Amino acid sequence: MADSSKNENKSFFYKLVYNDKYLIFFSLFLAVLVWISTSISVGTDESKKIKIDVPVTISDELSQQLGMEYFSLQDSIELSVTVKGPKYAVGQVGEDDLNVEFDTSNVTKAGQQSIPILVTKSSKTLDFTVESVYPSSIEGYFDVGAAKTFDVDLKYDNSVLANGYAWGDPSLSDETVIVQGPKTYVDKITGVTANVDFENATNISKTYSAECSLNVEGDDSIEKSFLKITSKDKDKEIKSVSVSIPVVKKIVLPVNVKFEDAPKGISDNSILSVDYSVNKVTAGVLDGVDINEAVIGVINYNQLHEGKNHFKFTSKDFIGFKSIFDGNDNISVDVTVDSK
Fold first, then answer.
1. Which of 150, 230, 276, 285 has CA atoms 20 to 30 A from the CA of 324?
2. pLDDT (mean) for 47-60
């Protein structure tokens, strides 16, 4: 019985091998299996997206040729690169297998321009092609570089103060700044301001501190995104300044001058009269400061001669107070000295 089964199998094998019909069918079957197997292992072309964070760099060669600088809206850009190729190759492609360039070949003049981004294959071993790049360009401005120095103009509101108080002299972390960028825009800048945001504060009677954003003022055509503000003292980019504004109490004080360095043998009686252009000023002093007169300046005895002496003092000369609020920033004094 067993021999009969073996003979039947052997007979089938002989028929399969030596019969043309069976051989053709068997060969086609094997070919299909091989094709399916190959398709699974190799596969048709596939696509893959690769994210790349690329620093924005423009060749210095262009700057040397045209005498211009490149000003960018951003320091780096994220690219989405689609590559295509056999599955086994595409699966291995990474950012190190790609080369990124910014094409400035069409830049011939100053102004804002769109710079194409070119991504090419750098790998010599992997079989793939670069199918697409997004974004495909980056905005930039080409121009001669320029810089201007400005004092920061601080803007703040008086209505938030308590009754009887006033603002003193503000202190800024950076009183002077430098604005850098394309000359076309820098030339149109008229100033740099900082606006104090008091939020919901009212009846302020103490020093107020805040962080204030810097604003470039000037022509409406200025594209501020291409400008950079730097600290004059620290040479670093800044976008805001720290501000502290003291609050002073307004009081009325009698005006006086201080005499010093009287020579020996000269008494105060030699000064017959001291006449002021105004006798009182509304001064601003910090709460708690003991002050009962507004000393507007110092007169040295060696500045005096017999008869009438005329002096002028400005707010820079005032001692013990910084601000007055009645328009008397300039005060004159006539000192009459005994001629005997």
1. 150
2. 86
